Each structure stands twice: as C-alpha cells, then as structure tokens.
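Annotated sample (chain length 267).
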Amino acid sequence: MGIVEGLTEFLPVSSTGHLILVENLINFQADKNHFFEVFIQLGAILAVVCLYLHRFVGFLNLKKQPEPSFYGLNGIIKISIACLPVFILGALFQNRIKELLFAPVTVAAALLVGAVLMIIAEKFQLAQSRRQTKAFAKVDKLEALTNQQALLIGIFQCLALWPGMSRSASTIIGAMFCGVSRAVAAEFSFLIAVPVMCAAVGYDCLKSWDNLEISLLPIFILGFVVSFISALVAIKLMLAILNKWTLLPFAYYRIILGIIVLGILYV
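Output written by the structure step:
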C-alpha cells in the first residue's frame, strides 16, 4: 500500500483510485485500516517538501518581492488561491463524496473521464501553440503564473474530489488550459499538494486517532518510509517524462486500466 500511495500520488493516475482498487484486489480492510492509509500519505507529502525545500524556505521571506515572483507573500497568495476552491467543496461534501464515489466502478469511470480530458488538454495546447496567440502564451516558469491562472487551476483541482480523477491530473489539465507548460504545471501541482494533503490528512487523523495502536507503530513507520521513497521516485519520473513527452502515455494507461476494471466487474 505504501508503494501504491507513493508512486501514484503525484502521477496523473489517481492515488485514491489505485488504493481503492488495490484494497479490493487484496481484500485490504479499508474501514479498519483507514488510519494507515491516511498516515502513509505523510510520507508522500514529506517527499515534496524535501525536493522543493528551497521553495518552501523562500515562502518564509514575507518581504514584498518584485513581480513576477513566486517567493514570499506572492507565492503564498498564489498557492492559497489555488487551494481555496477544493477546501470549500471538500469541507461541504466530503462525507457525501465518500458515500457515493468510493467504489471500483466510480473509480473506473473517473479514470476514463480524466483520460479524455488529458487528451483534450494536449490537443488544446498544441492548437494554441500553433496559433501563438498572446492570450495563451505558454507560461514556462512559476514566477510568470498569475493569480487568475492559480484560481482556474484551483477550480480544476476540485475534480480530484472524484476518486480516480487524480489531483495531479486535474491541476495539470487546468494549468494547460491556462497556457502553462506541462513541467511548470506539474511543479505547481506538487507544491499545492502539500497544503491540500496536510489539511485532508490532518482532518482524518483527528477523526481516526483512537484507532492507532502502539503495537502497529512499526507497520505504520514502514508504510511511511516506503511511501516517501516511492514518492521521490515518482516525482522525478513525472518531471522527466513531461520534459520529453506529453500526458498521452498516462491517458492511455488510464483508459486501459479503466476498461480492465469495468471488464472484471461486469463480464
């Protein structure tokens, strides 16, 4: 479970969706072990903080920075704007979402929908690049990201509340529709993952803290470490892929996995 969480958290394939599929495949008792699933996400969060430590340290400098900038207060504002929509919708509908959407069939549907959106985003950005319009001039560095673009990316991030859509995929798709390059979109996605995941994990930890048993601590630590190492590998892999290729390999993977899951469920 630690490997699945770490490898899929930052790839545009949905960690929650994969965890739901794997726990059904190996008969992992999700209700009983929910706190374990929450806890190992901390390993993935730590991986982002370690890889982008210079960014997080830069946020501590609250002196006004010249525009364009992504350090200090400017960076905090852009990340906060991007996180606000999912905080609001998550707080309002979290329980309802878990009741209705946490199942293999809904995950498979989300995998397919997300794949289609990724293909559309690729075709859209390619078309805009050919036209070379000022409105969609490609953003090739985080410092050039505007507050308006951060908000639109944050709105797209709300799609990730549907398990199987993927928070990473949703934010990257939204960024590409705003004219942001894939690599910058991925980096911004990694950064805004930290407050979003911390809020979600913190909330679940408070609800599930009583389920933690001291005897299980070694297993929790093992899952945390494995998740951390896997996430480091996944982030490096993601950036390497997006610097050379498109999102299409991930889209095709999602389509194949979605069809396989639906086939297993209904054939």
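Annotation: The mean pLDDT is 88.
Annotation: The chain is about 75% helix and 0% strand.
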